[in-house]
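Quick note —
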Amino acid sequence: MRRADRLLQIIQLFRRRRGPVTSAYIATELEVTQRTVYRDIASLIANGVPIRGEAGIGYVMDEGYDLPPLMFSADELEALMLGARLVSSHGDTTLTRSANDAIAKIASVIPNNLRPVLLDAPLYVPDFGGSIVDKVDIGLIRAAIRTSKKLHIEYEDAKSAASERTIWPIALAYHQGVRLVVAWCELRADFRHFRVDRMITLARLEQTIPERRDALFHRWWKAENEKYGDYMSARKDG
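Predicted structure written out below.
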């Protein structure tokens, strides 16, 4: 790896991790010696990159620093295109259009020699057909998750029984053939998974969810793991 590329990789590593990063971790990630890491960090600091280090804890990069825009490697461009094709295959209409718009923006500003790497990436996602038809705007669900707002839905279960629910959406899962909203249901006072294609109506409420989304997500994740553990124990006992 060229030294310039290595310096960019170090900055990217700081971007990916929120907490302090040790020189040993950086050395392992880049497959270099810690002495090389010390020299590279010193070079970055000398060139104005706001990196701070503390013995025994590691390095951190202050917020607000950014690289010149869109400096992508070939692997990163292929990853972006694969992601866009996954969205086109499994995502909703708005996300598909947004992914295509993002690719077009990137293609318009990257160097000419990298454009074919992005646009002609030989990475494809199978389309198994059977497009999903939703009765509601899934964009409202994504917006409610971002802004921590409650949703009111009319919902029809697998037996065609209808009910009205006020839910706290915390995640949206895109599966092949179905999209699921992970949410806290006020009616059931528990976490539930709602299929978007079974929502008859949907309205975003002005009420803010009274808990942080990350805390709700961790509670749901813990509950799911416990259910899975109980299921596996029952199978073993059976």
